[in-house]
Amino acid sequence: MSEEALPFKEKYYPGLEEYLDFYEESVRDIEGFWDSMARGLEWYKTWDKVLDDSNPPFYRWFTGAETNINLNALDRWIGTPVFDKVAYYWEGEPGDRRTISYRELYREVNRLAWSLREEVGIKPGDTVTIYLPMIPELPTTMLAVTRLGGIHSVVFSGFSSRALADRIVDAKAKVLVTADGFYRRGRVVRLKDSADEAIALAREQGVEVEKVVVVKRAGVEVSWSEGRDVWYHDLLEKAPSRAYVRPEPRKATDVLFILYTSGTTGRPKGIMHSVGGYMTYVYNVFQWNWDPAPGDVYWCAADIGWITGHTYIVYGPLMNGVTSVMYEGAPDYPDPGRIWSIVDRYDVTTFYTSPTLLRLLRKYGDQWVEKHSLETLRLLGTVGEPINPEVWKWYYEKIGKRKAPIVDTWWQTETGAAMISPAPGISLVPLKPGSATLPLPGIVADVLDYTGDPAEPGKKGLIVIKKPWPGMLMGIWGDPERYVRTYWSTFSRPEEGIWIYYPADYAVRDEDGYFWLLGRADEVLNVAGHRLGTIELEDAILTHPAVSEAAVVGAPDPVKGQVPVAAVVLREGYEPSPELEEDIKRRVRELIGPIAVPARILFVKKLPKTRSGKIMRRILIALLEGRPIGDTSTLEDPTAVEEVKKAVEEFKRLAKK
Ligand code: WT7
């Protein structure tokens, strides 16, 4: 942790004091601070109160205010130079390209909104599920839905039909927007087939999808349900070419969107974000993170199906009038230089990605980087997982050529945008490879030990947020009790009026007050920057007829950070075999999606359990990480450890090959 702070001699010379001045001022009067930050945006009506904290932890931001995020993402650019600027440079995996200006985006959003209202019947407050790949129609649909005052629920296009069905049912969505297919690694993924299956599964659970809007992307044959299915391009044709739909006035405290994420139970949580708070937080944090300038070309290489894409591909850049790059396909297709060739083609200035992608590209070898100039890059970012210092240095030296600071952003689906990160848009603090540095303005963060006292510098503890912030989740869709329990019950002391947000991440603060984020403290895995619940995976494995018990844990992986590994006990009459392993993996792929497939199924006769029957996952984790297994006095049957140990050793031997 004693990495020496890196100096910058370029534009971003360290300005720790300048940053701390700004920060201290922001947290001296949080409401006053967010009041002035929100005034940079367009509102139909401003607020009576910045923060309503009368019913914690159900904090409400900008009560009494009315707005629509479209006002800030699109309409405000009318009559300004931004209107004729490029909003998106889009590149398909096969190499097809589209350039979309703010004017074109505005027109298409209006036409789509017009048709969604007139032809599909979407009304304010309706929920629309969007299951689209990385094509321009995805941001267009999100904006059209929110323009009408609807709520979008975007489901990552890599999720299976079962995962989509669960999300449709939970949100009770009547309308689904999807595509015929899309390109991934040179092949067409038939998305409409999955959508059709999901609709059938949702019907079994009592939710009927009444309209399906289908974007033609891959040009493949699809099955068609007359009266229910409608082509996206036919809908657009129905709208007047200069259709105008007034952005529906929404209360700042209404729900802008739901986004599902994994937790510690089998059921994903629908995280709800607010109209006014999310808008304000994202608008400002985007500026602090990326210091946008008129000539910038910004590329957040995430998928819009995750919060990173919502915030840093759609709403953040558009509200700041920034030009973005959007790419449809696999990062190493057709070769490992694809990402860098896109950077050069569009003269990308600001590039934001995950440590997993960097580790993957680094592994391919520097020859793939060296073919490209990358000279336009001036800011680099990372998100999703801790970045190892070696990879940080590679990014800094090989990609940024030692002139682009690295903005390591720690945050979560629940927080709306970055929380702990450098803010070159204000003043760049000295960087330390592997640390996300300091809290952003308005964010009061700390590291506590198990008793709830501040952890000593250098001692591992749990990160907490001690004051509400505008980007915070409003709650969990349909489950207020789970919201309180998951995020506010660990360290809060309601009887004393103290409410503390608990992200469930380990962290250390060093002598300089810098935060080092160390991974999840709950039963949630972080695989390639994606969140997966261990219980969710176990539930999927347990649906296999051969399986009687399953325990899923994360094993360290040099590229993906973590990979799921499952220890499985078979039912009487079944024998371990490579075919059975494949079959169980296939089950996970079908029920959740390819990202969740375990790297390995370890067949064991017994799982280590406590006498009360609870599976001791920490023993599995210790064995996989090669650490001592610690206290085993509560073990019901010590021979279970030997079993698992053998299986883990075998796994590690194979992994080395
Ligand atoms: C979890 C949230 C927020 C967008 C992507 C993931 C981990 C996130 C960092 C970082 C270390 C990080 C945490 C967090 N995480 N960013 N810069 N350094 N860890 O969103 O799926 O909601 O996952 O990702 O463990 O809790 P998410």
Top keywords for this entry?
7-stranded mixed β-sheet; globular; 30 strands; Rossmann fold; 32% helix; GMP Synthetase, Chain A, domain 3; 19 helices; 657 residues
Describe the model.
The chain is of the alpha/beta class and 657 residues long. The chain has three domains: 2-73 and 273-440 and 447-519, Rossmann fold (3-Layer(aba) Sandwich); 105-246, Rossmann fold, CATH 3.40.50; 524-656, GMP Synthetase, Chain A, domain 3. Helices cover 32% and strands 22% of the residues. α5 (137-147) links the parallel β6 and β7 (151-154). α1 (16-28) packs across α2 (30-38) and α18 runs parallel beside α19. It starts with 15 loop residues before the first helix and ends with a helix. Bound molecules: 5'-O-[(S)-butoxy(hydroxy)phosphoryl]adenosine. 5'-O-[(S)-butoxy(hydroxy)phosphoryl]adenosine is lined by residues 261, 307-308, 383-386, 408-413, 436, 503, 505, 517, 519-520, 526, 529, 531.
Question: In summary, what is this structure?
Answer:
The chain is an alpha/beta fold. Helix content is 32%, strand content 22%.
Q: What value does the average pLDDT take?
A: 95
Over the alpha carbons, how many angstroms does the gyration radius reach? 24 Å
Number of helices: 19
CATH superfamily of the largest domain: ANL, N-terminal domain
CATH architecture of the largest domain: 3-Layer(aba) Sandwich
How many domain regions? 3
Low-confidence stretches: none
Derived structural class:
alpha/beta
Major sheet characteristics: 8 strands, mixed
Number of strands: 30
